[in-house]
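Incident review: delayed structure delivery

Summary: a single-chain prediction request sat in the queue longer than the usual turnaround. Root cause was a stuck worker, restarted by the on-call engineer. No data loss occurred. The affected request and its eventual output are reproduced below so the record is complete for anyone auditing the incident later.

Affected input:
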Amino acid sequence: MTTQTSEEIIEEQVGTADEKPPFSLELNQDQKDIKEWVHGFAEGVMRPAAHEWDEKEEFPWEIVQEAAKIGLYGFEGIAQFFADESGLSLPLVNEEMFWGDAGIGMAISGTTLAVASIFGQGTPEQMGEWIPQCFGTADDVKVAAFCASEPDAGSDVSAVRTNAKYDEAKDEWVINGQKAWATNGGIANIHVVIATVDRELGSRGHAAFIIPPNTPGCEQGAKVKKHGIRASHTADVHLDDVRVPGNCLLGGKEKLDERLARVREGKRSKGQAAMATFEASRPVVGAQAIGIARAAYEFALDYAKERVQFGRPIVENQAIAFTLADMKTEIDAARLLVWRASWMGRTQVPFENAEGSMSKLKAGEVATWVTERAIQILGGNGYTREFPVERMHRDAKIYDIFEGTAEIQRLVISRAISGHHIK
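Output delivered after worker restart:
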């Protein structure tokens, strides 16, 4: 049996530069089928349960298991979505899920952030060993957590204090620190943790580690009580003398030592652990925001057609109609940015102008604006929990904050377009 190199595997999955699929705004039949399939689950399973789980503020294990049984949640499903050569299947899936409900959608999709880190930085052997364990099986569902932020290190990733020290005698890494705002933190089967191995190098001295199931010293801290996406579990994670085997360093020690040596010599690093994951995931996060915005827009449109004031539907008032026109235009514009960035990421077109950050920035701000406008169109009804736009507005706000605040996205974009180190 011939063993493929990692380069051959990547080329087989992605293709060479000359083989990139042409960009098209028309979805192919497979993409249309996936979109319709996920939409059906979102409409039939997620939406009816959305209010209940938002009120309970608990992780909806039953619904995640239902998603696993139909193949929407699991290793095979995510592999199918990643395999799309255009890069559009993953944002399509996320838009439809978050159209159903953002809290439950995050419960289903939160694992993929850890998976993206393993896929982006791990060796083929690490991918094969750990990614299936992130999901478990349809009969025994598991989740995974990506742990990057800390109480004093949010936007400033260079401030990470969680440290990892190598015990050469035992070929183990010893990790100590505290992580904050970790989706699935503490309830996860697999935790992917960003830690510093050389504090003097700042963010360039970071590495990513797998924390296997039931590892002593890895414990859940306080669960976060959130403004929105309340069906998603968010918590601190405490790491107290956590020992993991040497092969739990994503990419391996040889690759890490080579990267650190380049940095110490003043040479350019190929990136650092947390940002590599964020760059890959930002367009998908943008797609989630678009799903929320679209749900709020559609509800407001239907409401405006049915709500009668002064003897006619309120949609016939120009102020309402023009607002709805702007909502639809902004949603479509944001989606195009997400699709472009997703296509670029999948086909390895360089993000020369921070197109990934552009897509996340635009989609997040559109979601908060559209959901706020939806509340306004519903008036007093929109402000109550009897109507879903209030929940959608709460859910949308996080998209201005996590995976890089709007201000950080503008910083990334401004540096990319100017070539200057904007502070």
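Verification: Strands lie at 144-147, 163-167, 172-183, 190-196, 206-211, 218-223, 234-245, 308-309, 312-313.
Action items: add queue-age alerting; document worker restart procedure.
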